[in-house]
Amino acid sequence: MMNNESSPGNSPIDYPSALARIGDDESFLAELLDLYKMDFETKIGGLQNAIDQENFVSIQELGHGLKGSSANLSLPFLLKAALDMESAGRDKNLDKARGALSTLGQEFQNLQEFLSAKG
Amino acid sequence: MIQVLIAEDDKLCRTILEKNLRKWGYEIISTKDGKEAWKVIQEKNIQIAILDWIMPKMDGVELCKKIRGQKWDGYIYLIMLTVRSKQIDIRKGFAAGVDDYITKPFDTHELKARLQTGKRIIGLQNQLLDSQKMLQEIATHDTLTNLLNRYEILNVLTDEFHRSLRENKPVSTVMLDIDFFKKINDSYGHDVGDEVLVEVASRLTGTLRRYDKVGRYGGDEFLAILPGCDLRNAKRIAERLRRAVCKDRIHTEAGQLYVTISVGCASSESQSHKSIEYLVKFSDKAMYHAKNMGRNCVIAS
Question: How far is B224 from B112, CA to CA, in rounded Å?
Answer without folding.
Answer: 54
